Structures are given as C-alpha cells and as structure tokens.
Amino acid sequence: MADHDVIIIGAGLNGLVAANYLAKAGKRVIVLERRAIAGGQAVSETFGEDFTVDALHAGGALRPDIVDDLDLAQHGLPSSAAEPLISILPDGRKLRLTAGSEDETIASVAAFSKRDAERWPAFVAFMTEAAGFLDAAYRTPMPRLPHISLSEGLPLAKLGLQLRRLGPRDMFRVIRALPMSALELTEEWFESDIVRAALGSGAIHGSTLGPMSAGTGYTLMHNWLNRGGPGQRRVAGGLGRIAETLAAALKARGGAVRFSADVKMILVDDQRVRGVRLASGEEIVAPVVVSGADPRHTLLDLVGAPELPPDFVWGAQSIKMRGAVAKVHLLTDGNHGVPAGTIAVAPGIRYLERAYDAAKYGQMSANPYLEVTASGRIVSIHFQFAPYALRERDWGQERSVLERCAVDTAAALFPQLKASIRGVKALTPLDLAKTYGLTEGDLNHGQLILDQMFFMRPMPGWSTHRMPIDDLYLCSNGMHGGGGISGAAGRNAARAILKT
What is the C-alpha separation between 289 and 299, in angstroms, rounded? Predict the structure, then answer.
C-alpha cells in the first residue's frame, strides 16, 4: 500500500503550487527536494555572514488567482511592491519606466522624446491587454494536436472569444506582435532608441535571444505579465518567503516536504509509474508522480529512454535549452551608490544585440546587458550573455573574468561600488546546472521561443502535462504557462491531474 497519493519531485514554486492544489483536493502529497532548502530558482540563500541573497531572481510574484485559490495571504504570504525599470546611460542620464505612476514615467520619457511620451499611455494599455491575453492563454489547457476532443476544444473556444473581446485593432496587434522582434514591436511605438532598448531588455531577460530575434515580441509580453510591467515586483523579506509560505500552507493541508531526498529514478512498471528511487536506494511508492524538474532531465535521465517511444525520445532530446545567464552577488559596506529599482545597462538596441552576438559564438559578452538591484548591503547583478557551453574555455577559467566584467560594467555607472565591496559570490551557468538542477543553465527549462510555446511546449503534442508513462505528469517551467516566477505551470498540472 502506498503511503502517498502523489509524489512531487522538487520543491520549487511550481512543485509547491501543484502540491497545495492537490492537498487542498484531499490528496496525500509528499514533495521530495534534493537540496536542504525549498524554493528551487526562487530561493534566498546565505553565502556568509550578512550575505543573504535572492540567488537567481531579484523579484517575482505568484499569479493572483493562485494566491486566492490557495488562501496564501492567510498563511503569511509577504507583500510585494512594484519597482521601476531605470535605464542609466553612460552620460548619466536616466530613463525611469513603470506601468503605473504615469505622470512620472511620461516626464522621464519626454526628456528623450516628446512624441514617445505622448504614446506611452497607449503602449501601456496595449501591453496590459496583451499580458491579459497571455494570462488567459496560460490558464487554458493546450490540446494534443492534431486531434482535438470536444473537452479540449471548448477552452480554446473561450480563449478565442477573449481574444476577440480585445477589439479588432488590439486583437490583430497582439497576434502580429507574438512572432515579431522586440526591435520591430518597439519601433512601431517609439522613436527613441533609449526607450526601445529599455523595453527590449525586458524582452531578452532570461532568454538566449537578442532584441532583433524573431519572437521577442512574445517574450516581451511574457515578461511584462510576470514582472507586472517593465520593472519587477520585489518581495518583502526576500523571494524565498514565497516558498516558505507555500511549504507552510502545504503542511497545514496535511502534505509534507522532505529535504535531502535526491530522486535518481522514476520507477516504471508496464508503462505505468509506481514511484521513485532516491540516491540512497530508498524506494517511495505512489500511484501518481509529478516532476518539477525540467522535461529533458525528467524524461531522459529519471525515466530513461528505454521506457519511452523512440519518436518521443527524439523530441525530448531536441528541447532547446541554451542557458546564457549568470549572477554576481556583492556584499558591500552599504556605500555602493546603487539606487532603489531595477537598473538596466541597456544604452541601445544595437548594444543589446552585440551582447547577444557573443553568445552565438560560445563567448561571454565583453559588454554585457546587466540588471542591477540593491537591497541594503547586497548588490546583485544579473549578467547576459554568459553561455553554458563556452567554445574555447571553461567556467573554471572564466569565473574570475565574469566577476571582473560584471563589476567593471556596473562600476562605470556607480563609481563608489568597487571600494564598497567586501565579498563576491558568482553563479555561473555551470553552477545553475549543478546546484540548482537547471539543464544547460536554462532558467526557463526550455527556451521561450516560437517553436516551444503554447501547444508546442515542451514539444509538439505533449502540452497537456501528461506523459506517455501512465500517471506521470510534468509541472515545471518547461511546460505551458511556465517561464519565470508565476506558479502557473504547477497550477495547470494540478488541474490536469484532478480532472482524471
């Protein structure tokens, strides 16, 4: 007899969200986490005395419907506040963008272009509509094409109706924008290269794409939705508080999180899942297994190719990862000079595209796109582009180069920064893979690109969260609705399980 109805692999946000939905429905749930801390990518970690950081993401927030469905406010979910995106130029000028505070933002844009300032409110309204459509799409179960059943077709029909409610003009604008490049999309709205670059940085954040790449119109909308606008939402007390709240809510619902439980194999018997085997050799059985690990690792490593159809194995092998993000965290004496907000080093569209050019050839950007955030004595630098697969060197050799490049680029804007540094912790793409379980260092568990979105995520025909192994489900960022901090993929997976 199984002691659990459902085993969930990984205590990242998607795994914890799925666990809470299932426990709320009366399922006996256990979450197995290989590390000693919950949160996955949304984790706050301590790297020394007074050196606690949000390791991989500076901010984020669960989707509001998830917060309401799971009553997370009653379990102590901390508040979050929207921060502006501040693009600081080499000459010291600043562009400050928010989806709210219209007067302040319009005045800031007007310093670069009065015409662009006049168009800003209409652009925000369009992006809000587009993000609302994406949110609805991420809540809509994707069918297994090419065959669509009536039960699958009805949600799609409702999504189509929501798209039509945007009105003819905005409906076509949204559809057109999805495959466009961020450059093309922003050129239709703005004349200032500074404004276009600031918005373009949001389109490439976390992805191995340049602002001239097709499909970055979609990623701009995706990140606008998840970040709540051009800036991002910062969580009081650190991003790790979200995972702590989800774990507490799960415990209150009768579920459990077990730490230092490294799953090495998903056990399969006659094409049906029967549990998992840990690195220690212990076997835990349950009739349903849900993996919060990325699809490629889950299917090829934990299940194994011999258990899967050959064409499915080929599809899993073809999932595009291509991580190119690094993080450099600085412990300072507090006199770093970095202001509040999300500071973007994005002085022009071509600057961002040249930064991406380096990644195309397996090189780290010498002039990178950075996002810099500060919290007390901590300064965190999001660095792009730093490809997981370096062509001529390895990350053992390049770690010090990464640290120096990140600090030098940021210090060009904040002259006090270097003298204030008391400690450095760099997380290379190799660290993201080894420590955080991100295959090829990909934050999204599969790039957010045109052939890996909606019903083609993680691969065509398998967007329903159910896998060829009976009662095996995926809930990670690599699934429909995933990418960034939102919990949408975990919510969707739980709903798919509860429908069976």
Answer: 12
Give this prediction's pTM.
0.95
pLDDT (0 to 100) of residue 290:
98
Residue 143 in contact with residue 153, Cβ under 8 Å? Answer: yes
At 144, is the secondary structure helix, strand, or coil?
A: coil
Distance (Å, whole) CA 279 – CA 281? 5
pLDDT tens column, 428-467? 999 999 999 999 999 999 999 999 999 899 998 899 999 9
Residue 187 token pair: 């050129």
SS3 445: coil
Positive or negative, the CA dihedral 20, 468, 315, 306 is positive
Q: Which of 336, 380, 323 is nearest to 47 (CA)?
A: 380
Contact between residue 217 and residue 203 where contact means Cβ atoms under 8 Å apart: yes
At 260 the three-state DSSP class reads coil
How many helices (H) and strands (E) would you count in the chain?
17, 19
Strands (E), 218-297: 232-235, 256-258, 263-269, 272-278, 283-285, 288-291
Q: Does the pLDDT at position 316 exceed 90?
A: yes
| 4 secondary structure, DSSP code | -
Mean pLDDT of 421-433: 97
116: DSSP letter: H
**pLDDT at residue 1 in the model:** 62
